[in-house]
Task: inverse folding
């Protein structure tokens, strides 16, 4: 008799990094002025990020290129207004110090020319690599246990494994999927949080990171 099962294993781990995404920029009717304002804001932020990295609060940051777009707005009666310019740069900062993240995210949300777009949580790459093998082994143990339970329920001897594979690679297995999920859906939308806190820093609560694996296995009993 053939027994085909799916095995899964999940770990919930505390976040080790907080990742802040920001936009630095300026808007106005004069292209040169807008570009200078955006450059000044971005460079000021870059200096802050260098200091944060040097003191260990942040472990990594990226400052994207400044880009400019132009458009002609319309007023309420449909009249075309003078051309407007928007120059902006995407910025990402990875924090190891969560209290520092809370303080700086609040400061940046209140700084003219800066927008805090999102805060998400992650594991370090070292932890992800360490946990990957453990969680995969757990999924194999779960598949083996399920096969043993089915065999006993059917009055059969202990099953012998014939094949084990990633989800979908065994033709008779179901369509479960494998993932290591940093659960970025639990990110904190900073701008809505700032509206409640005034100038006082909002203390963020990191979401746990879910690490999950699934395997499909076929046994003979």
Result:
């Amino acid at each position: 008799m053939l027994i085909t099962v799916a095995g899964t294993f999940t770990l919930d781990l505390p976040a080790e990094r907080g990742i802040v995404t920001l936009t630095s920029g300026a808007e106005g009717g004069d292209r040169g002025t807008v570009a200078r304002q955006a450059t000044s804001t971005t460079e000021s932020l870059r200096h802050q990020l260098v200091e944060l990295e040097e003191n260990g609060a942040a472990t990594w940051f990226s400052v994207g290129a400044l880009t400019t777009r132009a458009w002609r707005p319309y007023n309420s009666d449909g009249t075309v207004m003078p051309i407007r310019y928007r120059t902006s740069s995407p910025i990402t900062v990875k924090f190891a110090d969560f209290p520092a993240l809370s303080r700086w995210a609040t400061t940046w949300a209140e700084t003219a020319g800066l927008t805090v777009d999102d805060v998400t949580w992650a594991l370090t790459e070292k932890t992800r690599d360490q946990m990957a093998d453990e969680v995969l082994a757990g999924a194999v143990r779960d598949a083996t246990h399920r096969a043993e339970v089915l065999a006993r329920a059917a009055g059969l001897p202990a099953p012998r494994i014939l094949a084990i594979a990633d989800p979908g690679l065994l033709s008779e297995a179901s369509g479960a999927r494998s993932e290591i999920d940093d659960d970025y859906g639990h990110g904190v939308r900073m701008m809505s949080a700032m509206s409640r806190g005034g100038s006082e820093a909002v203390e963020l609560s990191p979401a746990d990171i879910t690490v999950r694996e699934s395997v499909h296995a076929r046994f003979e009993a």
